[in-house]
Amino acid sequence: MNNMVDKAPKTENKASKATYPTYFESFDYAQMLKDYPLGDAVSEQFTGMSKGELKTLQNTRFMQVVKRAWDIPFYQRIWGNAGVKPEDIQSLDDIEKLPLISKADIMDSVEKYPPIGDFHGLDGIPLEQRPPLVFHTTSGTTGTPQPLLFGPKSREVQSLLVARSYRFMGLKPGATIQSCYGHGMINGGHYIREAVTKYTNAMFLSAGTGVETRSVQQVNLMKTFGVNVLVGFVDYIKRLADVAKEEGLVSGKDIKIDMIIGHLGMESRESIAKTWGNPELFDWYGVGDTGTIAAEGPDHSGMYVWEDAQFLELLDTDTNEPVVPGETGNMVVTCLYKDDVYPIIRFNTHDITQEITGDNTLNLPFKRIKGFMGRSDNMVKLRGINIYPQGVGPMLDERDEFMGEFICEAIRDDSGRDEMIVRAEVSSPLAEREALLAVYSDLLKRKIGIEVKVALVGEGELTPLTQVDIRQKPIRLIDSRFK
Fold first, then answer.
1. Per-residue pLDDT at 415
2. What is the predicted pLDDT for the residue at 385?
3. Are 280 and 259 in contact (CB under 8 A)?
């Protein structure tokens, strides 16, 4: 009997050693809310802040992230191969000593250390001390899906920054938001849902893509539940407007959208707004690895970079040297808050933008960017001219018969000369399209700088190629040159 009693405490000790923190126990949630303000607290903290004060804040967070990164084999390997030592990085001013990383480096890590690589920093944490994780992947449409891992602190900051952006734009209390972001293994829909439900008081409809909730059902959800805010990728938002019209639903009457928060890029705002009864449109930018980087403000004067959380460099696409403010460059991001799982330092998104120079009317210390202008790794160079397929559609928006859907195909003829064919959907009858070819060719030559071929097709004919009905980001380039 005594022996049985003696063994009891040992069992309890083993159990206690096997415990681990729950999600909100694994970091200081209250401190996070103080460090990363939301709502009115954003203007209270940052309005009138000097660039020097902002840099001091950035520097403290940068050094903490760098300290964490030195514990991780991924960064030890990449920085070591570049000849960087810990003592070389004393402040944010030393950031250019660190090599860039990109998705290719992450996937190389996954290949060498399957299935989730060695970039996250979990391997050095005993199992009983590891924080809970949020795990997603990229879509994998171009190959093996990339793992995306989030620690509780960095996940919450990412969600908060989305909500900060929405509220900064002017999201009304008690709004009803319908989200067209996809779910499944990809991050988008889950991340937006967490942001809205935790950090706003909006009612949230997680409709997802047209695959998850049929487009016809989506527009009827908007009518039934009085949706007034629509969020998602703009290509599908435009598609939903067509579906609503086909269903006999009148924008502004049956569906009263007063705010669209999408990834507008260089799209024509006027054409998007017109289809939805002229709501106010807002742009924002981020990628799966980093979360929200910048958001358009109520002044509609570019997108403000959340520089208390993200350090953004714009680098020349060829030399990786900083560009002059106002010139186009790759967005390279350092997440100043990711000091738990998967630190991100000098991550080259390969997304192109340019800084908006001059003061802003909101008296905020943050830099502003123009928005997503295309991808440098999706660029086609024809006769010395860089063409970003994502930007071709907006060039065609001045034509009334252009229906918004397009795709570019890069080809190489028998002589080895590279050409591009721009295929566009138009409302014009087949008999009239031949006469329009020269008009479209001249328009593109004027805007791009060189002549490209044009093919005009009817509504819906490009859907099998663009996959706009099933993809969050439609295909805009087919490169047939090397097949």
1. 76
2. 78
3. yes
Co-location of 56 and 205 in the same domain: yes
Asked if 189 and 182 count as a contact pair (C-beta separation under 8 A), the reply is: yes
Please indicate, yes or no, if residue 8 is contained in any of the structural domains.
no
Q: Are 342 and 419 within one domain?
A: no
Position 210, amino acid: G
333/325 Cα distance (integer angstroms): 16
Range of the domain at 416: 380-479
In this structure, which amino acid lies at residue 98?
L
pLDDT less than 50: residues of the chain: 1-16
Tell me: the pLDDT tens digits for 105-123?
999 999 999 999 999 999 9
Phi-psi group of 214: left, alpha or beta (phi > 0 → left; psi -120 to 50 → alpha; rest → beta) = beta
DSSP annotation string for 49-112: --HHHHHHHHHHHHHHHHHHHTTSHHHHHHHHHTT--GGG--SGGGGGGSPPB-HHHHHHHHHH
The tokens describing 264, both together, are 């507008």
How many residues are listed for the chain in this entry?
483
pLDDT of residue 10: 47
334 closest CA partner among 316, 365, 308, 367: 308
Which helix (H) or strand (E) segment holds residue 219: the answer is helix 215-225
For residue 376, the model assigns a pLDDT of: 83
Q: Where are the beta strands (DSSP E) in 106-150?
A: 134-137, 147-150
What the block records as the tokens of 429 is: 């009858």
Choose among 114, 235, 137, 242: nearest CA to 184: 137
Q: In whole angstroms, what separates CA 433 from the centre of its chain?
A: 36
- Residue 328 CA to residue 188 CA, distance in Å, equals 27
Our measurement of the distance from residue 107's CA atom to the centroid of its chain's CA atoms, rounded to an integer in Å, reads 19
Q: 232 in helix, strand or coil?
A: strand
Domain count along the chain: 2
d(CA 328, CA 324): 8
Look at the block and give the residue holding tokens 């460090």.
35
Query: Are residue 249 and residue 398 in the same domain, yes or no?
Result: no
Do 240 and 107 sit in the same domain of this protein?
A: yes
Whether the CB-CB separation of 416 and 388 falls below 8 Å is answered with no
3-state secondary structure of 291: strand
End-to-end CA distance of the chain: 79
- The neighbouring-strand residues paired with 260 are 230, 281
Q: What is the pTM of this model?
A: 0.83
The four Cα atoms 387, 391, 393, 396 give a dihedral, to 10 degrees, of -80
| CATH number of domain containing 257 | 3.40.50.12780
Each residue's pLDDT tens digit, 340-376: 999 999 999 999 999 999 999 999 999 999 988 888 8
Buried b (16+ CB within 10 A) or exposed e, 187-214: bbbbbbbbbbbebbebbbbbbbbbebbe
Tokens of 179: 């989200």
Q: How far apart are CA 50 and CA 46, in angstroms?
A: 9
Measured distance CA(455)–CA(285) in Å, rounded: 31
